[in-house]
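Problem 3 from the worked examples.
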Amino acid sequence: MIKINRTHTIIRLAFVLILISTFSSCAKWDEFKQYIDEGEIVYVGKLDSVKVLSGNERIKITAEVKPDPKIKKALIKWNDGKDSLQLDIGHNSVIEQYIAMPEGIVSLELFTIDDEGNRSIAVPAIGRAYGPRYSAGLTNRLTSSAVIENNNTALIDWQEMDMSAGPIGTEVRYIANNGTTKSIIVKVDDMTTSIVDLASTAKTVSYRTLYLPQKTSIDTFYTAFYELGLAKDVTAEYLKNYTNPVATSSVSGRWGIPSDWITNTAVRNFRDGSNYFGGVDHWFGGPFLAMEAGWSEDNMSSIVNGKIYQIVTLPAGHYTFEMDIPDCTIGGDFYTVAALETEIPNTENVSTALGFLKTSSPGTHGLKFSLMEAKQVALGFVGNVPNKGAGDGTFWRINAVRLKQIVIVQEIPVLHDK
């Protein structure tokens, strides 16, 4: 049997461990000595409060330079270091630098440098530039209505906007009553705009919507200008004798013949001796335009395709021909018509007209039609009004008519001015 001296074994193991530790320490010292031989590492103070602000195919970098007198330059790198920019700076200052940048997200590294070329540690930053792709998705604000009131004040009602793309307002341009072009900014949360100094000849305004993709963006983006036609009351320009009290060319008691309106024989159904009258009723708050038959066995005969109308020449535009009906036989065979003729058609042929609307109930009614070029148009009314005997009849009254026009406009090119 072999006896092991434990004391000798422990001494030998301790000696081996000391040798290993000595060799390891020498190796680490040699590595450290290598750096000492190359010189001491010098770090320059890094930039502080770095911000990257978005713009239109550009960015703006802002940063604070620490009060380190060794700082002489700043180095900005992006595109994985393939692109860079070096700036002369002073310590304890602020950097504001614009850099042209294609649309998209950009990752940057920023350094400071001293006179000997020593750099600070990198300060990373991420930013974004916007451009054509962003602009292509921008939409102009929509309107609910746009009208010119009788005092020549333009009223524009706006629809709400989707705020996700960053709309900040709408610029409205118009011709003022002093002949100059004016511009106003409508806040994005304003729902109504009033223009009190619109030129009396103006029938349109132009507007575009302004966007900031981010609240801190350095550039404002714009949609194309859109020319908006205003609904303008042009009644006085094209129609005559259009409201109560309606003037007459001849009268017999309650009934008269309206001036400036064409009436056919069927409308003139009140007999006074050898003369006939009709088209205007002086009772019940008149005189207003009217057709009536009945309440008599020997007078006020049935009206078949009775017509009251005017012939006018209108320029291209979108039109609304309105009428106020204070009272009528509800459900009667009455129509409001716009026709490209010198006469409005019979009731059985109203579908051939430029536009028609059955208007057989009290209230305000509006007939819409459009002209792509100047045309002669007959505007008026046609109806069948039966005589139901001495105790009954049929009637239709019109207190006033109005003609409103919206000029046909085209979008005009994008304007890039700020």
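Problem 4, a separate protein:
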Amino acid sequence: MPANETERTLVLKQYEILLPTPDRTLDRITALAAHLFDVPVAVIGIVDSGHIRLVSSCGLETTEIGFAPEYPAITLLREAPYIVANTKVDTSLLTKTLATEVAGMEFYAGAPLITVGGFNLGSLWIIDRKPRVLNEKEFDSLQHFASLIMDRLESSLNLSQVLTQIIRNKDAARKTSLEQSEVISSMGHELRTPLNTILGFAQLMKMDNPPPTPSQKGNIEYILESGWYLLSLVNQLLHSAAIESGKLSLLQTPLSLFAILEECQTMIKSQAQKKNIKLNFPRYEHELPVYVLADETKLKQVLINLFTNAIKYNREGGDVTVEYSQNTSGVTRISIHDTGSGLTQDQLDKLFQPFNRLGRESGSEEGTGIGLVVTKKLVEFMGGEIGVESVVAAGSTFWIALPSAERPQIKDQ
């Protein structure tokens, strides 16, 4: 067996996987070759151990031509284009093998199919039932057809390799992400226990008798404020890890959008009053009921986070306006517009990156840089989308789009 036959066989398998039967592109090539050279048969053959696989043929019904296994495949391969003008005087194994399937064959010509790595896969053969010759132009055309076939195969192989690498990278990233989520989850639970203990003792100290001095009270308030902030961060990290690892449960039901918005408005009202922010919610009494398909708890969490940001990063005495719309594609969009400082394009590009506060780390407003990341994951987890439009010095509009739903039927008692 030739030194490179084992390697050639391995390479052959890579290409054979990419060759469906039928392959319409290759079938067009063999049909065109048969027409151009005015021959009854044109085939593309991949030479393997003990057989030639015809991956495309014009004028021949069979898909495989066998030959004696004691003959190595290399015996049927040619390294350059060739012509057998009269098969009656040629006794080569290739001639005998092709003649077993093409009755009355008296002429054939072939152009080898050579990979970019130099491995010979087989040939494009044109076959006639009468002796003939090819002129120089026809001979060149046969080589061009073989090159066209290999361009098709190489493109498919490259695409396959790219897709395989993408899948591998995605699987590796997924595995890494899951491992990171497990670590975050473990650390989060370990941190939450002592944090709760610290907060509990701080609250007891605040209610102590005799009461703490003004100085002590200030320190206790600082402990509580910092502790609640850190606990909030831990909880958000745990939430993000749960979504990433697929451990978060989801219960989607038709929900009244108006009812959800009213509840959220009640929860954020005091926060808006502290900054003299005017809340502009839709007037529901003259509107037809609107329902969305979502998880109630998670939808409230998403909206509260967006409302909180719209208030937090708004100007003193600004507005927060809530609007909704429905389209014919069965999607309901909820938009939340603020009159804050707006976001630059660079900030928009980094908006959903974890722990990125977009240059506001030194500002007066607290934040973890993870709230919007969790919000985005929750929206997508519910089958929705989230987006933002912003104009510097004019404000931002965050929107979420969720599947619309029919009003739930009330069952008779």
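Solution to problem 4. The chain has a mean pLDDT of 82. The first strand starts at residue 41 and ends at 48.
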